[in-house]
Amino acid sequence: MKRISRELWKTMLIMIICCGFMSSNAYAEEKADLKAIPEWSIMWGDPPGGLEGVIAASSNHWIKVNNGESSPEKPEEVSSAWIKLQLPTHIPMDYGIYIEGIHTQNLWVYIGDRLVREIKFDFPYDSQRSLFPISSEDGGKVVYLKLETSMDRLGINSAIKLDQYVALTRTFILQDLPDIILGCAFLFMAAIMLIGSIFLKKGQLTSWVLVSVLNLTIGIIFITYPAFMYANFTNYGNLFSALFDVSLAIFLPALTYFFEKIFNDGKYNLIRWFRKFQVLYSIFSITFMLINQLNDYRFNKAYFFASVTVLGFIMISQFILIIGLSIILVLRGNKEAVIFSSGFALLAFMSTLDLIYFYASSQEYRFSLWKWGVVGFIIALIVILGRRFAINQEEMINYSKELEFYNHQLQLSEKMEIISSLAASVAHEVRNPLQVTRGFLQLVAARTDDKNKEYMGIAIEELDRASVIITDFLTFAKPQLDDLVDLNVSKEISQIEGIIVPLATLHGGRITVSVPNDLHIQGNSSKLKQVLINIIKNSIEAFQVDGQIHIWAYHKNDEVYIHIKDNGEGIEPAQLIKLGEPYYSTKTKGTGLGLMVTFRIIEIMKGHIEFKSQRYIGTEVIIHFPSITVK
């Protein structure tokens, strides 16, 4: 049973394929046998008697036109015309006629004496397309089209297609559908951007809203430009026409203003003056449009001249101006200008070609190339906005880092000020009792037994350590750098080698020094040595196995740089930023005063210190002071 069912399905599938193949061959044969419409005729004016007068008119009144060619130019005094075409004798079922381009406001279609289509535009729009079915009974009949307009164009400017009605319907719908979908996409994008603008700051808002307005106007232009909208939504044609004109009038000055805000920033008066002129002309155009509508399009010819011819030249001038300024900005190395210029150059080039074709064809050409330019240009604007937001985000991060750094410096400065005041007021008072106590301990130690002498020695060592801490406090509070002299960095470092080299050797390490003899700075010799010994001593105490310290110096950008690099245990990044803070030390018994004094001395000598470190790899200290020239 299952096998029979499978065989049945196979048989049916083969029959369906064969039927489809046969029907396609039959359609091909029918189409091959079908004679195309080779020519059609046009008669200017409307003879008395309507359609009967047209049918009765002699052949002298008709002008023959080959199919695919445009109508002859309309005489100035004529406002109507008749077109006739002969249908083939044999017409298959479900066929139709499609005329893509008809310049007329009102259209009547007759097959023989039967009216099959009537379209009237009560607004100034004269681009129509017509699709109507024909049956096999219409074979050999004559099709008449009556055209009527109050505008300058009249006639057919495309081929008359005869094909299956379904195929022609698909062409009729899909021809303008991409433009409508693209327009809706722009409107959706504009709506999302306008909603998102409520979360933006004032500095970012203007550019964002301008791009939103550009998207909005372009979306409306894309939707209201195709003839499909006027042919299928005739009742809203007046609104579509007005929206198209208003959107174009807003788009042009908005584009100039966007360019002015992003790149110009008030540097060029010409772009600002041109933008103001565009705003005034747009207000004039919109006002003129309203006046023309309220007066039943009485001033339509003048309005057409102002909104099409004059505006076209303004657009060309705008494109030339913006492209010229963009080239200047590109030559100056502005990266955003390169992006803008690429997108705008595509828009300007495509639009200029459209305008050239439009005026070269006596204003009968239908704009189409500009759409590709618009898409490329909008992509460029979005890229610029994205880049601007990325830059703003980076600047905000850098600002936060700087704010954190300065806040840290402020806190450190406040701590330093407190310690300086405390050290200056207390150190002298504490040192005197310590010295007296130390003296009495030495006297007592000389007269006591050995066991007590050991305790007295420990007490004296601790008093000496306290005295050293107090000395560091005094040095930090009031560094004595009154006797500033010219210092040779090489000599200063060589004088402390006798102290640091044995200390490094004692800890199982070694020191290498590479310092030229011609590096000179201004400062205090003892304090500079104190700084270097403190830093090198810290490196020695951080030795691991096979400890090494490399000291080198050089001259760069009017400064002397001194590097002290070790291969010790290193410092964690979180600890690096705290170095130099009061009472902070990475050592177990450290007080942090040594680095505090080091930082303060370097600061007084107009220098700067920087630490670089990696855990278990080592630490590098970079100190630089202003360089001086020794005569």
TrEMBL record:
Which SMART domains does its entry note? Answer: HATPase_c (SM00387), HisKA (SM00388)
Q: Give the Pfam families listed for this entry.
A: HATPase_c (PF02518), HisKA (PF00512)
Molecular function via GO: kinase activity
Keywords annotated in UniProt: ATP-binding, Kinase, Membrane, Nucleotide-binding, Phosphoprotein, Signal, Transferase, Transmembrane, Transmembrane helix, Two-component regulatory system
Signal peptide bounds: 1-28
EC top class named in words: transferase
What's the catalysed reaction? ATP + protein L-histidine = ADP + protein N-phospho-L-histidine
Classification via SUPFAM superfamilies: ATPase domain of HSP90 chaperone/DNA topoisomerase II/histidine kinase, Homodimeric domain of signal transducing histidine kinase
Q: Which residues form the Histidine kinase domain?
A: 425-629
> Transmembrane residues, as ranges?
180-200, 207-228, 240-259, 279-297, 303-331, 338-360, 372-391
* EC number in record: 2.7.13.3
Protein's recorded name: histidine kinase
The major lineage groups are: Bacteria, Bacillati, Bacillota, Bacilli, Bacillales
